[in-house]
Structure prediction request, 229 residues.
Amino acid sequence: MREVDDELRRDQALDFWRRYGRWLIAAIVLGLGAFAGFLFWQNQQGKAAERQGEQLQTAFDDLGAGKPDASAKTLAELAQSRSDGYRAAARFTQADIALRKNDLKGAAQQFAAVAGDQSMAKPFRDLALIRQTSAEFDALKPDVVVSRLRGLAIAGNPYFGSASELVAIAYLKQGRRDLAGQLFGQIAASEQVPPSIRQRAVQMAGVLNAGATGGTGNGETGGNEKAKQ
Prediction:
């Protein structure tokens, strides 16, 4: 019986191989081909990233050497990179070059390109939106500034200091001194905010609070004087 069972299993195995053997081989070959393709793609990605890193460094070197035209060509190429990091770095650098030339409109356009690129990581887009708003600030209505940045002017946000400072100034332009004072106070109290922004916030919070107190004091003094008269 055992010999019969063994023979039956061999026949079944041969029958299975005759039916599906070629498909199994094809599947294995395709799997190995896909794996080899992935390894090749990964290798190419690594080489591309290394090449783009060298290009970015060359652009920085050209800028440092006073060769803006040479760097402009490299940055324009990197601005089309598939890598978020290199694409953002190129755009930010192009914008900074425009700012050096006092070309606020050109800088804002570069920042806007990053802010509106949904394929970019959110931290890049948030920073670009803040810097775009800063470049356009004098030409924007205060309510536009508040609308753009209010969602970033929240304690705990990585860009809380920069976003909140712009929103607070916009509040001042709207005549909403109470909201501006509160926001400057929050910035001044935060230890996560860069020292330069925090120092300005301390000064502004002091001025706004002093102004409010001074106004009340003057009003009370005036009332007392009238009562005495």
